[in-house]
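We modelled each protein-ligand pair independently. The example shown here corresponds to the flavin-adenine dinucleotide entry; the chain sequence is given first, followed by the ligand as SMILES.
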Amino acid sequence: MSDSPLLDRRHLDLLLNEMLDIEALLALPRYAGQDRETLNQTIEAAHQLALDQYLPHNRKSDLQEPQMVNGKVELIPEIAAAVAAFNDAGFIGMYADTDDGGLQMPFLATSICDAIFAAANPGTVAYPLLARAAANLLKAHANADQQARYMRPIIEGRFFGTMCLSEPQAGSSLGDIKTLAEPIGDGRYKIRGAKMWISAGDHELGENIVHLVLAKIVGAPPGVKGISLFIVPRFRLDDEGRPAERNDVVLAGLNHKMGQRGSVNTFLKFGENDDCTGELVGEPHQGLAYMFHMMNEERIGVGMGAVMQGYVGYRYSLQYARERQQGRHADQRDPSAAPVAIIEHADIRRMLLAQRAAVEGSFALGLYAAWLVDRTEHAGPSEGRDEEAELLDLLTPVIKAWCSDHCLRANELAIQILGGYGYTREYPVEQCYRDNRINPIHEGSNGIQALDLLGRKAGQANGRGLRALLTRIEQCCATASEFDDLRAHAEALKRYAAALGRTSATLLQAMAAGQIRSTLANAHHYLQAVGDLCIGWMWLWQALALKRSPRQQEPGFVAGKLGTLRYFFQVELPRIEHALALLASADDSALSMPVDGF
Ligand SMILES: Cc1cc2nc3c(=O)[nH]c(=O)nc-3n(C[C@H](O)[C@H](O)[C@H](O)COP(=O)(O)OP(=O)(O)OC[C@H]3O[C@@H](n4cnc5c(N)ncnc54)[C@H](O)[C@@H]3O)c2cc1C
């Protein structure tokens, strides 16, 4: 797998074996009976399936996007085959409890397999991943009867799922949704409204689609406090739980996307003929909180999806840079001398390093978050679970936004390395870029993630998550200081962490004093600073892990890791000082710009 276009196994092994304490994870009671070998075999199986059934039609599904024919969605046949293979191999139920028909494997292992599929074909794997996220939400918040009728068939690979939040007039601001739910007396509700941008909203891949719909019960309070969550199946179920007559959910149109074209994106109308029924999940008016269960998981998934497109682009541009001969060294004056491979040029190496620093650093951060999910959901409270839950909450918007911003930028650099060829459809890097471009937008745009981080997460639980982050970074710096070759980096990171702590305190105080709009005006810079700090931490941590790794004997691997660490610390990390200065001075150059001035 080390020469795979999807993932370098050596990199993954370093994270799994030397960085994250996988043995401690497998020692949790939920994973009794599982070992590293099972994990490895599952990852290998995912990799093989991704190579055999996902990668080969990645291009075709980009060129032949879904069509709406007589009110139905038509997909290329390879998608159905690949999704069925995923489900048949058990990947759909990988994280689900064995009692629910799943494999009960760690979330960490699930995230790795998902990442491999997302590297091979992000459009196709979106169908089962959305279904799985819907099943996880039902597991957390639906009643036993609903779980039996809707969640179980998803885990069996028979039903699919969607998340229906957005409406034409309400995307970022979900408090403004207009979809209504009216009780009809038997515990069911009539649903009426329109949902925009619904991924996998209609298709013929399974027996049914379980739409998880946000709506307001008639008379509910305004804003997000009035939102409830409903199960709205495409086909209503009969008494035996089998799909029976069609529910009044109509496919009103398809959205024609820039990338990830294999995953159909739909405009759905609910209750056009006054015959759309749904079931309430949990309590009324708690819908957004429930949906966040799905969205938080999806946000880590979106971040990881962005990482993997960045990763694939990096690997491709690296190979290209080694092969493409062009130009000579600046001090080489003989025009008849043979041209050099472009990887010889420092500017190409700069762009390779920038890609690598972002994608491998982000991959480590994403896996760390997945590890935290396992810990927070399955470790006991005495094992630091509450603190880790706060840390995970804090890191979620960072993973979603920093990783999707910087791994998209990585794709841009991959295109640049290929020069004119990179700009053509004959080479894959432009598709990586287009497929990746959605990630800063959906699941809450990156601007919204920044508001979430500074406006909510940084001060949440009295700043416990932020303190946990800074403490862990300091501990890593203390250990790294013991090594001569890491000491200077450790000291720099420690300094930046302390500065972020001070700036955060100032910003939280300002918001507590009512300066909310002016403080949040710079939320983007705050998220970038926290993200830079986290990625610096991940690089330092990897360097420490290398000290314990058998890979220490591979000079090329070690030089690659340490060289990228050095690049990130020298060239990229210092920008944190500028971001913190903008934040500390409450820079108002954007906020004060008059709208008429544009
Ligand atoms: C391919 C694709 C797939 C999607 N899949 C789904 C899905 O399956 N289910 C679903 O429910 N939705 C889905 N979405 C919708 C997606 O989540 C929304 O597009 C996203 O939340 C942004 O909403 P919007 O498009 O209405 O943009 P708007 O909310 O209009 O935002 C436009 C811009 O304004 C900024 N902005 C908005 N409000 C603020 C604010 N208060 N402060 C600062 N900046 C602000 C945003 O950051 C953004 O840059 C999908 C979208 C796409 C494109």
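The radius of gyration is 24 Å.
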